[in-house]
Amino acid sequence: MSPATPAPEHGGTALELLVHGVGGATPQSMLDDPRTVRVTGDDTAAVHRRAEDLDAEEDPGRYGDRPVPEAYVWSNLTSGDGARALWLLLLPFMVVNLAHWMRPPAPGRPGLVRLYGVLVRLLALSLTVLLTAAACEVALDLTAWQCAGTPACADGRAWLGFLAADRGGWWSGPGRRLALAAVLPAALVGLLWYLSHRTWSAYEAQRPPTDTAAVPAGDPRPALGRPGFWYGRRLVARLRAAHTAAGFLTVAAALAAAPARQDTGTLAAGGLALRAALAACAALVLWAVCGRGRSERRLDRRAERSLFTRLPAAALVLLALTAVHTAWDRPGWTSAGTLPGDAVFGALTLAQGGLVTALGAVALLLQRPRRDPRTALAGLGGPATAMLACALGCVMSGGVSQRVADWLDGAATPGTAASALAGPPVLLSWQASVIPVLILLLLAPAALLGVRTALAARRLRPAVEADYAGEDPDPVRTGQIAASRARASLTDSAPVLVAVVSGTALLLGAASVAGAWASGEVPGRAFSGAHPAIAALATTTQALGSWLVGFGFLLFVTWGRRAYRDASARRTIGILWDVGTFWPRAAHPFAPPCYAERAVPDLTWRMSSWTRDTGGRLVISGHSQGSVLAAAAVWQLPSATRARVALLTYGSPLERLYGRWFPAYFGPEALSGLHRAVHCWTNLHRATDPIGGPVRVPAEEGRPAVDAPVLRDPVAYGRTRAHPLPEPVLGHSDYQADPAFAICRAALLDRLLPALPRQRTAGEADDRDGSGQGSSGRSSG
Q1: Are residues 520 and 667 in the same domain?
Q2: CA–CA separation, 498 vs 427, rounded Å?
Q3: What is the pLDDT of residues 699-716, one digit of tens each?
Q4: What are the alphabetically sorted keywords of the record (predicted)?
Q5: The pTM is what?
């Protein structure tokens, strides 16, 4: 706990609500006391106090010299058992959901805003179809069709014996093998539906403490302050139904295409009717995705009860009928080559490229009237991020398909003369081949950034010595501080890296499509016709790409488990993950759950109820990602409550990360509006902090600038009487250890309105809630 704050001259009860960052925390560490009590909340997220402060409101005179500290602990919203690390495998869904929130600000242009949302939702739908099609490629084509239909492949795998074509079993027929294999991708789609539904119920179904009145169209309230921003129940339900149906329809389409050339007579007519029904259901899915976006201007508590909620059941029935149709005996039907449908992956890749291009055009139109120079990628952060999501989906599809093909084929290379398998579609082989190329191309900007950081550290040495004027210069100490500042500035180079990666991914994706087209769509011969040396190099990169994908999956799961279980690992990689899961699921319902839809209402409810019941003053103190949650909660407060609330942020990425990448929600106008809306706000930052930074909100209308002077880090250059041992470079941590923290907090409390007297009505029962404070009869704040 930080040093005690001097009592404000107007007295009264004061509360400091502490909100930790992504590294996770315990109430004992936040309150600097081993004896803490949960005031309100549950095992997932809760408010804690020290045991001795439990009845602070009943004896305010005892706390006249300091605010009562409370800790809001939300670690379990983003951490837990290691099984939740599997959410990392859904990274493409999370990334495309981020693209929705990265649009430029566009006041007065609702049509373009709606078009931007529709394009991102279509991209999200294409990713669901792509990854389901990849699962169908692995289960239906490579396993059930090619390997089980080839004795040389099936004989070496006992688990495939009952499906082997040469065994003559009941499941040995091509159609029955495919129908049985379709259970795997269908089960994957069902699992995604279940996870999306369960996590919504557990984490995101928290209603904000606002009335249900709609915000008028001309209301100047920022987006994060609208009643329905943190409650997207209807849209998530609608998108979940549409994406689940799209997954089932993809599996059904893969089954329906397999026997199409073999069918005659009644079977042909039945197959045609099934394909027509699948197309009609797919049209309804597109209508569901495009027809409705987010409803933020009002708190919509209605459940989604329409034709669209029945889409998954309808698609599942069609899938069952298609499986029965495919499993029907067809004399003379044998499995040879690959299943039809190679063109599907090419069409999906071209469609995604077209959607990303259209998204870029819309983003340029949205930010044409004015452009903030600090906005990442000149307002094209959303399209670039969407391109990254598509690239991740393509790489995962191609790499996994190639890896499974290599595993099933043993020592041989799929598609060669010595191989028993034809291999995956040509485009997937090309996509697996570009993985090593992409990694090699990324080495150049990484090396450039390393050289740039070293040169920046050298240039910063005079500035460091100037900051510690009067100290005896120590070249080693100066070099350490300068290097810390230079490394911290690497965060500002993230837009360049994203631009390089997304641009490279776009070019390599186009090269993959061109290579697949040039090879004539010959299954298993993606590099046929090329020079022998080029073909050998390409085959090597293809095999290397498949191994890298397998290694990448292991790395994902390993690091994911560490991030959920180990605080230091979570602090290292958690900021990017927590930025992604901060935003509601507006584009993809299978993205990892949004913790802010639980945390923001929690904080808003706590601040509203405490100030209303006590009439006291409150400072909400947020570190790192906790500062973003605190700002979002303050935006949701009624204006009367905000008059009793001060905001203290430190190590905050509000402008450095959120303002640059999400300008419509945290841009300069939004942060200036927050400055005017909240009674008082101070931001602390260090030059050595790689995550936090200034919020760049200037003084206006008699209000001082938000940013305090840059804190020195370390607080002492050498050994002093106050610091006899060398002080560490703290960077992003331990802001409360700086004496400036207590001074700024005391100044904020002094600027708040005087505390209102507590009043009780006659005969009021002394009804207490779990916090030990009266729950009714107190004057409104």
Answers
A1: no
A2: 24
A3: 987 889 999 999 999 999
A4: Membrane, Transmembrane, Transmembrane helix
A5: 0.88
